[in-house]
Amino acid sequence: MQKVVSNDGTEIAYDVVGSGPGLILVAGAFTERASITPYVEALSTAFTVVNYDRRGRGDSGDTAPYSVEREWEDLAAVRAATGARFACAFSSGVMVLLQAGLSFERQALMEPPFRTEGAPPVPERYLERLQEFIGSGNPGGAVELFICEAVGQPKEAVDQIRDTPMWASLEAMAPTLVYDALQLGDNAVPTELLKSIETPTLALFSNASPDWFKMSAREAAAALPHGTVEGHDGTFHTLSPETLTQVLVGYLV
Description:
The protein is of the alpha/beta class. It has helices at 37-43, 68-82, 93-100, 126-135, 139-150, 155-162, 166-173, 175-184, 191-195, 211-223, 241-252; strands at 2-5, 11-18, 22-26, 48-52, 86-90, 106-110, 201-206, 227-232.
């Protein structure tokens, strides 16, 4: 593990694994760097993988008050420390990558969660309710809100997780659900932002994901000046590490 100091003095932890051109991974909601070890192991056969903890997660610090710009600065600091040429962002991490405005040679977006036609609506007062749960010392309430109402999983799924060691780590990361909600804003496809990005970008989706996720990737690619979209066999909202590695080798290298 290494650390870099971001613009506001927050320490951001990261690992560098493998050899080849540098590739930074930008995690989505409820993901710390240890959670994506299988991706790191697969990708490190072709890339020097830079895997960092977004602020408030894992071994990275956190400094109040939060603003979305701080996470863009975190990514810039990690990129400056490692010189990575490429980036791949997952789910809500896509907005950190896109809004950071860094000039990577190429980049990939894995299923940006923009709410396109057919998507379930954003939960009522979602951001406010997350903030209320965190502010009242009830991180478990925020976890349940995210899993049940934002992701759409049954409450039984939450009850099962409560009985596992995973629950404590989710509660610890619960404040970062507010961060992801702020990064995503109104959850619409950010067409004007996408039009301003000159970096060649590959938008990816899993063939097993709901149609609205597929449409999100397609609409993002269509708005990008140099956008491409591909779908591959996978599971809900994810591709296997082996598939992602094969795809990124073909596109980035």
